[in-house]
Amino acid sequence: xxxxxxxxxLFNIQYPIIQAPMSPLTTPELVANVSNAxxxxxxxxxxxxxxxxxxxxxxxxxxxxxxxxxxxxxPPKDIEISxxxxxxxxxxxxxxxxxxxxxxxxxxxASLPVKPNKDLFPEQIEVILNEKxxxxxxxxxxxxxxxxNKCKQLNIRLIGTATTAKEAIFLKDIGCDxxxxxxxxxxxxxGSFLTSDIDTIEQSTIGLQSLLSQTTQFIDPTSYPLIAAxxxxxxxxxxxxxxxxxxxxxxGTRFVTAHESAKLVPEAHxxxxxxxxxxxxxxxxxxxxxxxxxxxxxxxxxxxxDHFCPNENKNNVILPWQYQSxxxxxxxxxxxxxxxxxxMQLWAGQNYARCxxxxxxxxxxxxxxxxxxxxxxxx
Length: 379
Ligand SMILES: Cc1cc2nc3c(=O)[nH]c(=O)nc-3n(C[C@H](O)[C@H](O)[C@H](O)COP(=O)(O)O)c2cc1C
Description:
Blueprint: H1 6-11, E1 17-19, H2 28-36, E2 41-44, H3 50-63, E3 68-73, H4 83-99, H5 121-131, E4 135-139, H6 145-153, E5 157-162, H7 165-173, E6 178-182, E7 188-189, H8 198-203, H9 208-216, E8 226-229, H10 235-243, E9 248-251, H11 253-256, H12 267-275, E10 286-289, E11 297-300, H13 303-307, H14 324-337, H15 360-375
Parallel strand pairs: 1-9, 2-3, 3-4, 4-5, 5-6, 6-8, 8-9
Antiparallel strand pairs: 7-11, 10-11
Helix pairs in contact: 2-3, 3-5, 7-9, 10-15
Bound molecules: flavin mononucleotide (FMN).
């Protein structure tokens, strides 16, 4: 039988499974049901205002009395962008819509506003501290000392996201209670933060197994909880991570097709993930791309990712994080409404073909049963 781990003890949960925060696809029902099933759900606060986050926390507290976490994006440093770069992306998108046939698209790309986003981080942190949530996880960087200290005073557990052993050591040293190691297989955005060199981030990504192995050379996994993320979809993935030094796993893609996610995940996205299960011809490649948001993230290859592929089109301009999305996402939203997948944003980890049409409770129960069967050599 699966035994307790450093992670289950730290978070006071039954099973070493964390539902990855998935902005903007995470519903309160998903968070609550994962926690009720013995794992730990996580709110993806990302672009929520303080008020939205507070409402979300309150809603989840009506659905569960078990621990759950809140995840935030560490804000970027101020970036200047030129109007020339904005116009270049507008031009590229206009051409793409015509050349790759985004049918019936009436979006006036020339008039889409591109402006700095409001920094929501301070109001999110205020709510997290006031509400004394049990866990705060973060990605794209690290929390400043004063916030770490306040969290420690309030007994709020901290999880940072690392994509290299060096980032993991950094996060442990600043006071994180656990570190989530994000392998290159992972769906969604890369949490890389110690380098801003895009070539390093895109070309030198480390697979989960190697990342665990490298990190445990420097951090003793028997005394510090490491959380494995990237491509973990079943009991084999869980056992593999546990036997490689992790104290638990953080799973995203598997929960994208959970019943509780259906109201936020476009149907065409959900179907693409589920159809790959029984038909290898529908198992499309995933790519690491900056096409949608300006920050590297993994999703299924589309006309948009092909166009903004740095290897193919070295000279194509991509706007930085928080700007590129202001021009691209309106097209993706229209494409999702009209089921034109080649223009959709289809976040998925490399192992997405193991998605199932199930509730969150069934997902957790199935993974735990598989893991226990493996331990008893039934499989
Ligand atoms: C749709 C989607 C959205 C994500 N959004 C976030 C997020 O808001 N914050 C975060 O820390 N990680 C986010 N991630 C990354 C996950 O935390 C995790 O690293 C990843 O899901 C693990 O790989 P897997 O998808 O193969 O399970 C997201 C992942 C996906 C698939």
